[in-house]
Every structure is written in C-alpha cells, then in structure tokens.
Amino acid sequence: MTETASGSVARGGRRPRKGLKMKRIFTKPGVHPYDEIQWERRDVVMTNWRDGSVNFEQRGVEFPEFWSVNAANIVTTKYFRGAVGTPQREWSLKQLIDRVVGVYTRTGVENGYFASEEDAEIFDHELKHALAHQVFAFNSPVWFNVGTQSPQQVSACFILSVDDQMESILEWYKEEGVIFKGGSGSGVNLSRIRSSKELLSSGGTASGPVSFMRGADASAGTIKSGGATRRAAKMVVLDVDHPDIEEFIETKAREEDKVRALRDAGFDMDLGGKDIVSVQYQNANNSVRVSDEFMRAVEKGGEFGLRARLTGEVIEKVDAKDLFRKMAKAAWECADPGLQYDDTINDWHTTPETGRITASNPCSEYVHLDNSSCNLASINLLKFLKDDNSFNVADFVKLTELIITAMDISISFADFPTEKIGETTRAYRQLGIGYANLGALLMASGHAYDSDGGRAVAAAITSLMTGVSYRRSAEMAGVVGPYDGYARNAEPHKRVMRKHAAANDDLRTVGSMDAKIHSEASRQWSECLKLGEKHGYRNAQASLLAPTGTIGLMMDCDTTGIEPDLALVKFKKLVGGGSMQIVNQTIPRALKQLGYQQEQIEAIVEYIAEHSHVVDAPGLRQEHYEVFDCAMGERAIAPMGHVRMMAATQPFLSGAISKTVNLPESATVDDIEQVYMEGWQLGLKALAVYRDNCKVGQPLSAGNGSKKEEPQAEPEVKVVEVNRPTRRRMPNQRPSMTTRFTVGGAKGYMTASSYPDDGLGEVFLKMSKQGSTLAGVMDAFSVAISIGLQYGVPLETYMSKFVNMRFEPAGMTDDPDIRMATSVMDYIFRRLALDHLPYDERAALGIFSAAERAAQQRGEDPAALQEPVDREALAQSAPIEPQSEKEQPVAELTLESHQRFTADAPLCMTCGTKMRPAGSCYVCEGCGSTSGCS
Fold this sequence. Notes:
nucleotide-binding; Anaerobic Ribonucleotide-triphosphate Reductase Large Chain; cobalt; 3 domains; globular; ten-stranded mixed beta sheet; alpha/beta; RdRp_reductase_class-2; 27 helices; disulfide bond; DNA synthesis
C-alpha cells in the first residue's frame, strides 16, 4: 500500500499537505525503464482495401521487439502525431510515451501529488515501464491529444442532458456535433421531452422525442466521427413510463423492415450504398430505462401507467407484459432496444444529492451525472498470471494505485468539449479503471468462463481493483482534497462504499487463486472504509468495464474487456505483409496447467489448428472441454453464461459493463425476455442482446406474378400421363469460362460451361486439394447442380436458394462487381447471375455489376449496359488453368478470413476488414478502428 508523507506544496498557495510516497513495482533505482528493453526498427505500410494502393507508409519506426506487428501498426497509424514525412512526426514508441507521461508527471508535481522529487521520478518511470510493456493502456483520446497543440481532451465517454425546450434540443444537437467531431461518443436521456400525446402551451400537439431523434440521427450521420468515415457513436435512452415508449421501442425495427422492402425492390441498400441513407435512427444505440415498479408488474402481470412529462399524472395504462414483450420482440428483430435498470443504477449512485443518473455513454459502461465525462484505462490481466499459475496480487495492487493516481492527475490538465461537461467533471472527477484479457486469463489458468471457478476469479479481481482504487482515492483526498461535490454527498457515497465491501464479504471463493485475491480485496476494502471516513474520496466514480477495442489490440490482448475468447485459432500479422494462422498461446498454457504432458499438448494443439475446436481432440478429457469454450463456434458459451459473468462482477464496479449478450439465430423472443428478466433479477445495471443475423439476412422477393387458380376438376378417377423431365446432355465441345475468385481470403476456381445455343448447363468448383473432404463435397455439389441444370432447373431457382446463404469463409472478394459475399455459395451464384442472366431478372434479386451501379448513380438506365454474351468468342478463349494441387492452398490464411464468430459484423470503413465485437461496440483487428468508445 502506498504511504503518505509530508513535504509537498499544494496548488494555489494553500498550506502544505502530505504527498504520496511512491513505491517501485517493475523498475530499478538508477536504471531508466527503456534501457532494459530490446528495441527494433520496423516499416509500417498500410494498403487500401479497395484497390491495393498504399494509403499509409512510415518506415523505420521503433518498437520493443516483443510487440506484435499488429500492435505496432495500430500505434503508428493512430497515435503517432505530426505530419508523415516531416521532422515533427513521431517515429518511436519512446516519443509517444514520453509525450504523454511527461504531462502527467509535470502536472502531478505542480499540483502537490508527490512527497518528493524522487517519488515523482518513480511515478514517471513506473508509468513508462507499464505502458511500454503493455501492462495497461489509457483510452485513445489520451494518446491522441495529451502533449500536443490540440485541446488536451482525455475522456472518451460523455453524457449530455436535454430539457423540454426547443433551445435545449438545438443545443443538444450542437453539443453532440462537437463531441462527434472530436472522435468521441455521447449518450442522452430524452424523457424530459413531452410526448406526442401531450399539448403545447400554444394548444398544439407536441412532436415527441422520437421525432427529434430523427434530426439528431441525421446530424450524427453527416458529421461522422473524428472526421473519419465511421459513424458517430451515441446512446439514446427513454424512460419506460414515457407515453411515447412504444413508438421508441419499435423505431429501429420498422426501419429494418424498410431496408428489406427497399432491397427487394432493387434499391442499393448494401454497406455504403447510395440508398442506405434513407434508413433512419441507425447512428444510435437505443435503450429503455426500466424501473423496479415496471419489472415487478411484468413478473406479476398487471397494468403500468405512462405519465405526462410536465405534470407526472398517468395519461395511459398499458399491460406491462405486453410492453415487455414488445421490447424483446424488437430486440429479436434488430438488437434494439437494450435495457438499463434504473433503480439498480441509482441504488449504487455515490452523488444522488447532486442529481439522478439518467443516461449512459454509447457503450453503457459509464453511468453517472448529466453533462459529465469519464476517462478510461484498462489493465492487461494476463500480465499478472505467474508461471506457477498464481495471480500476482502485490504487483496488481501497486499498478492499480499507479493508474488511479495518473487518471486523477489528468483531470487537472484536461480540456472538455463543453463548459458544462468541464465543470461537472472537475467537480466530481469520475474515473473508469477496468481490465482486458479476462477470458485469456481464465483459460490460461484452467478455468472455464461459464463456471463457478471462473466467476469467482473474475469477481475477486474486480473487487480488488475497485477496493484499491477507492482506497487510493481516499489517500489522494488526504493529499489534495476530496472532490468538490463530496461534502453534500458524503453519506450516500460512504453508503455505497459499504455496499461494495458487503458484496465482497458475501463473495464465495472456489479455488486457491481466487481465495488469495479475495483475501487481499477484503483487506483493501477495510482500509478503504477507514481512510474514506477520515479523508473522504477524491473521485465520485472509480471503475467500470469498457470494451477495450483499440487499446486491447495495442496491448496484444487475446480477449477484450470482460469477454471470453472468440475463437481458439487466430491470425497473426507478419513482418513484410501477410498473416499466418496460430493457435491461441493461452491454450498450451492451459493444457499444461490441467496436467497434460508435452506430447499430449502438441497433439491437441495440432488438432485445434486443423479443426478450430477441441471436440474429439486426441487425449483431451471431456471434463476439460468447457475450459476451451468460446463466444462462438462448436462449443459456444450459452447466453446465460455471459449474463452470470456480468452478475458476478457488477457489485464491485462503480459503473456498468459494456457487453452484448450474443444469442444464436435460432433464439426466440421468449429467450430474450428471459435474458432481460434475469439481468434485472441478478442485479445488472445495463444489458444488451444481439441475435446472430438479425439485422443482415434479407428475405428474397416472392416474384412478380402469382398463379391463377385452376378450376377444380370433377372427382373422377383418371389415368394421368406425367411428362417426366429429360436430360439435355452437354456436347463434347462447349463454350466455358473459368473464374478465379477469393472470398474472405479463401481461393477457388469456377468453370461454367454453356450450351452452344445459349444456356448454362454445367458448373464445376475447385477449392482444395484432390482427395480432401472439402474437394469431395465441392465435386458432389458441382455434379448435383450440373445435372439439375441439364434437366431444366432454371438458374433463377438456384439463385433464390443460394444467394445470401451465410457461412465461412465470407467477407471481401477480389471481384470488382461483388465486393463482399456472405459465403462462397453467395459469391458463386451472384457471379453466375451476372454472367448468364439478363438485367431484368437480376434486378429483381438486387444483383448488379459495378458498371450498372455506377450508371444508377449517374441517373442512367443500367439496362442499356447489358450486352449479349458472345458464345463463339467464349468458346475460342482459352480457359484459365488452375494451379496445381501442390500450389493451391486449402484457404489463404489472412486476418480477414478469420471472422467465423460474427458473420454479420460490420466492415471497417477504414481498411475493409470485418470487425469483431468488443463489448457493445466493434473493433477492427486490421487497423484498430472502433465503432464506439476507444
């Protein structure tokens, strides 16, 4: 535990206070932390996913040799400041860390945080060591802004407020725009705005909050975020007793119906399509703020009152179960709305005398006062797992102290996007320490994610982290004073501290690892309560669990935030380009911990590399399968496994948890109702769900015509002669076209042969070595399709069955006409349609060539571009010879091809890689871009 000592000078000329006495964790006296690192020079070259051109290049950058290529690329492209090619451009990680840490250290000295110059130096060296060794990371705005000429914005999370006045609503639009322009996200509760069922003072009817959401959504879609191409990140919340709640619930689901209808009608509704902008309300996450009163009404079955905004009187009563069902149904259809449990949130509120908590940031982990912000930092938990499989409790405690100290110092120099946010944040000093790599830590230590042991470890670590953070906050209050709003909120703040400590007392340990962590957590909470009673607290909030998208990649984490592993096999970028498939390094460590010998470990790892799962792995006992369960795949963790993990950690967090509970496509509305209900019963603060493919799978049109009813024949017995189809065999010589394609990194060849007088009659596909299972399946599939075509099955029939089919490999293709495919089958039949069907028939299926799409944008008739296929020229052309079996790989292993865990995740608008979940947001493993908080 860090001690305090007298001798520092407080800011503003106040009387001297005690300063913090720092202790070393990783560094040695007289040795700079950089001197103990092996540094190396690298070249960072990023290419454009559309045409392969170079869109970023910086050569000779300097990083520690143990940093991965991906982490170095992300830091170089995102965080290095200065124009590329100028002397001002940063070229070393040392420069980046020095720029940031230098400001923290100087500010700490100026504001009297340290007992002596030596303590300031220890703080400086320990911070630099931890950052350079990927032990923790600040959120992205710190790396963007600190130590530059830009405003020193350090916060990633913002909450705004809006009142029932037009001036306030317009100010909300403006404030959101400023925040989006700076690359951050915000949340707001619109429940103060009168409903469309209430009257204005002039006698007219109010517009209601949903109508104003439309304007804010358009603004967000126009401004984007940070000047980049990705959409802005925002959260919109509405209270469950608002009279417009049903309209709010169904808003995004209705828009999804619009997308389907427009796509079926031939409009370009694909990612980046020119018609997608007509879809509204897509730039925000929507959440309903539900009360205990409402949830009890759902349990018991009864009516629930919707209240006027100005008077509070009940103006309408609804069936609570029906309303709850509508929430679940909308979430089943389009993943929105999520739920925020209002009474639970405010029961853990440290500053209720200042105001209620009404909203959250876009990813739902930051829940605090209106017009406030929070800066984040996350610890890489795997760094604390020792070789003997114990958790390094002592170092974890010291590092948490260090991080909380640095985060609080940052508020002293930080700039904020609006004056109101600045005033609130400086007065309440909200922090958001969290962690990443929990899933990797559990697997490496032999704990199943969905198990009592796994939850006990996670709960103990979370309790220890928050206990140390608030104990440190009380120490800082004794040095530089408590937060300005503490005096009026002292009693409720101390009450919440006691609630955390009581939850820690109730924690039941399972194994030796969590028992040792819990023992230290109990000691920290005891000390926290004593120091808090004496000094108060420096921070109104200390901890939460953020998505850790970009910074998780910066730290080379296998898992983000509280998430489990997504898959057992991942792809590692190589120096000089390309990537290779590797089995997650936590797996051999886990197998060793579980008692397997080296020969067995090698055999199991080899099996996993080939099959991507552990089922039937040689020598692996079935009772150990659960240790290797992942978010997706052969043995996916059940939805309630995610909910139970959130419930285990929530009592030890000041804020909430950014996490989406994934459900399979087969999940029902009842399943979502159960998740939402149990989330409330288990004490969560917020919860969102996502059913696989709920937003992407588009039903095909049923056709333009309908069959006329035939008159019913007389009921007499007849002998009916059935005309059986006959096979029209292909001639020995026929025109053919061979297409080489790549879908999501997997290469293949398709040879399509036609009858000389037109008409497709044969298709053959090759994607693997002869004799392999995949090759056999593709051969059988080719024969079946070819025979069907020769018996007269129309190509359009196959189109309706196989277009939009989803399975891996999927993603980007090398075909300019078909930039993205949901599977190999989806690509093949789209390509066949473009090559063999007339425009009118393809248009009904929404399949257009690049030239036709361009003609549509110019306002020209795409059908005019259609040219008949020259069969004679096709027959004379030499088909492309496929590669030899030796040369042709089963699938080119690239980062983009490894996306089996979320078939409908969005594509990164920066580099084109399919993104993966990170909490409630998405992160791109190719370039580090995120769809929400960084």
